[in-house]
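If your schedule permits, I should be very grateful for your opinion on a structural question. Kindly check, if you would, that the fold set down in the tokens agrees with what the sequence suggests. Thank you for your consideration; the sequence and its tokens are set out here:
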Amino acid sequence: MPDMTLKDVREKLAAKQDALAGVFDEARVTTDSGEKSYDFNRVTSLGKDVKGSIAVAEKVKEMDTELNELAQQAEALEAAEQAEKNLSDRQKVRNRLPLPGGGGNHPALGLAMKSLGAMITDEKAFKAWVDGGAGGGITLSFDDALPSDLLAKAMVPETIGAKALMSTAAGFAPESLRLPGYVEAATRPIQLLDIIPMAQTGQAAVPYMEETTRTHGAAERAEGAAFAESAFAFTERTSPVRKITDSLPVTDEQLEDVSFISSYVNSRLMFGIRQRLDQQSLLGDGAGANLRGLKNTPGIQTHAKAADPVPDAFYRAMTKIRVTGRAIPTHHVMHPEDWQDVRLLRTTDGVYIWGSPSEAGPERLWGLPVVQQDADVAGTGYVGSFMPAWISMFERKGVDIQIGYVGNQFGEGRRTVRADMRAALVVFRAPAFCEVTGL
């Protein structure tokens, strides 16, 4: 491949990315339950020579490898351009004019600039000229001295015994170049939304029908006897859509003078709303405008650890979900401190059960992934079947960002950036989840 410029690499990278995205768009299949999968037999954009799922999959792997190589080339070229910028910045500092009296890039003048008279009398040629009778004239040259230094020295005559100290406290403060970016403040990340199935709704509430009576009366009967009879009944349930909001007043100058502030404010508000939704999905009490989270959903099962080891308690919760909830458990949810106790479990002879301390170890318990969360306090964990059939988060409106004037802000040179979203959490089958206490 011939050498390319950074622009060429970026353009080729973008084109390859679009091509690969097109392949996945063609292959994407959505089932009736809302789950997404890929059927590579549907792909035709790769040409007549690439047909069938295996051939397409191999081509996708080849395209992905090429994209990785292009990305590495782009990173190398970007690093080279950044190195050139860094060199230019250093050259600016190195080549700047020396401050008057400071010596600058002329170390031959010493740490302090002598007066013109002192420089003349110290010259050997001047002393020889005086010793020879000072006849005629003499020419002296000071190539290392800057005219600005000599003029500055002339403007500050020294009185007898006076020595002024030049320091950063009373002199010229050194310039400080701030590092780019900023150090983010610590905050709780999004932890549960990744395992909760997401769906959409166009209504102010999510109504659904629940089968509340299911009595199977199937039984053997003799010839001519009355048939057995079953009974089924449904009840309509409703989960209201709730709104989560946030806002931030910002001055006109802040938006105008700092180029990244607009995107920073938008991203922070969006994250804050998602973080609140994440917390509400577990702990919301359903009162007022709150969502009803998993912890406060009526009907979820509970299991007390008691004297059992923590892994045993979670397995017993899994059994309850299978037997009473008639569902297949998919995830464990627990506080990092509770998972710490599991990770540090050892046998009687000191061998770590979840792997050597030199390894990360599996974040799995009884074959199920462990999701660590600290929205709820330590000591309480959850096991659940996080499948669309048993739980879903319905978005009425995703995170929306607006900016405008509130009250007297127009006259004060301020604006308010606001964000909101609307969603409903629906736990279709509460017994498919179990709270484990006493950890």
Observations:
- The chain has ten helices and 14 strands.
- The two ends are 59 Å apart (CA to CA).
- The first strand starts at residue 28 and ends at 30.
